[in-house]
């Protein structure tokens, strides 16, 4: 029997991968952003004078964004490498992965946050179950109308649900760009700011490859959503995924704002009641 495969080109779903020259702009740090291997590899560096950053040309409203990232090796204390989605304006939305560096041999902290309408304070922090400087690993953000899920190598580490957006705002109307940067944050990043960046070890370099966005491109003004259906659009965590999430949270979560009663003496944020 002959199998016929129809290749449907969906108008609003972009799946791009592996070419940093075409789909991204350098936004900060001039030659500290380097695109190598014909657009397949991008490196960001930090030195005493400046950090560096890039962002996607397109804006998206919902999608699954992934990148393979290899973090600054050895002494990375004081440095922060970030990978996030963000909209613009004073009531912006943002979904963050930040990687807080450390002394040689000490573990990185993965710091996550969800900011809605300009308000964050929703940090969860994790250790990783591997050395993120030894090789590339995949970090993904899935963002659809129901949920935001953070993944590391396909394992969900955090979810933020759309509960009742009249009570807890959920990012669902502002298109976001993909951003990435490296900068000096030695006033807070490592052991609360006690350990400083060692400039004699600069430049500090993180590498990115295989960035992909299965996402609805926002055509300014026209409102591209809803875009064609796709596996990530209806996605919520199924029972096995939820089990893996719980496993990560049990063994690798080192900070959770949802149990930080000291920080929220007036009561925990509303969404915490429904958090897994
Ligand atoms: C990536 O894009 C650039 C600029 O458009 C092009 O010169 C290069 O050949 C592309 N690389 C690959 C691997 O397709
Ligand atoms: C750095 O390593 C120390 C010692 O293991 C740890 O307590 C700390 O959380 C690590 N990360 C940061 C960002 O300080
Ligand atoms: C590139 O990323 C995509 C999406 O995350 C993934 O399916 C694919 O396996 C990756 N390719 C390589 C060579 O790692």
From TrEMBL:
Record keyword Repeat present: no
Post-translational modification: Contains at least one intrachain disulfide bond essential for its enzymatic activity.
Keyword line: Apoplast, Cell wall, Cell wall biogenesis/degradation, Disulfide bond, Glycoprotein, Glycosidase, Hydrolase, Secreted, Signal, Transferase
Pfam families attached to this UniProt entry: Glyco_hydro_16, XET_C
Positions annotated with a glycan in the UniProt record: 102
A GO CC term attached to the entry: apoplast
The keyword Secreted belongs to this UniProt entry's keyword annotation: yes
Domain GH16: 10-208
Catalytic site positions: 94, 98
Family stated for the protein in its record: Belongs to the glycosyl hydrolase 16 family.
Name of the protein in its database record: Xyloglucan endotransglucosylase/hydrolase
Lineage: Eukaryota, Viridiplantae, Streptophyta, Embryophyta, Tracheophyta
């Amino acid at each position: 029997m002959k199998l016929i495969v129809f290749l449907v080109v969906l108008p609003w779903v972009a799946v791009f991968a592996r070419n940093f020259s075409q789909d991204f702009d350098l936004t900060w740090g001039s030659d500290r952003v380097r695109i190598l291997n014909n657009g397949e590899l991008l490196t960001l560096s930090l030195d005493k004078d400046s950090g560096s950053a890039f962002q996607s040309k397109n804006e998206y409203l919902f999608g699954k964004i992934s990148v393979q990232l290899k973090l600054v090796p050895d002494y990375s204390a004081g440095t922060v490498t970030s990978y996030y989605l963000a909209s613009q304006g004073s009531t912006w939305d943002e979904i963050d992965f930040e990687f807080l560096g450390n002394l040689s041999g000490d573990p990185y902290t993965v710091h996550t946050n969800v900011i809605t309408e300009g308000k964050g304070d929703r940090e969860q922090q994790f250790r990783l179950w591997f050395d993120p400087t030894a090789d590339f690993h995949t970090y993904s953000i899935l963002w659809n109308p129901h949920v935001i899920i953070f993944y590391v190598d396909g394992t969900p580490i955090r979810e933020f649900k759309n509960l009742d957006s009249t009570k807890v705002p959920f990012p669902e109307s502002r298109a976001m760009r993909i951003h990435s940067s490296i900068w000096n944050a030695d006033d807070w990043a490592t052991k609360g700011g006690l350990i400083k960046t060692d400039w004699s070890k600069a430049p500090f370099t993180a590498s990115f490859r295989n960035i992909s966005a299965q996402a609805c491109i926002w055509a300014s003004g026209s409102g591209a959503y809803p875009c064609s259906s796709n596996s990530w659009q209806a996605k919520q965590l199924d029972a096995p995924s939820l089990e893996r999430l719980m496993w990560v949270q049990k063994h690798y979560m080192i900070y959770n704002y949802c149990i930080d009663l000291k920080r929220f003496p007036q009561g925990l944020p509303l969404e915490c009641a429904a958090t897994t």
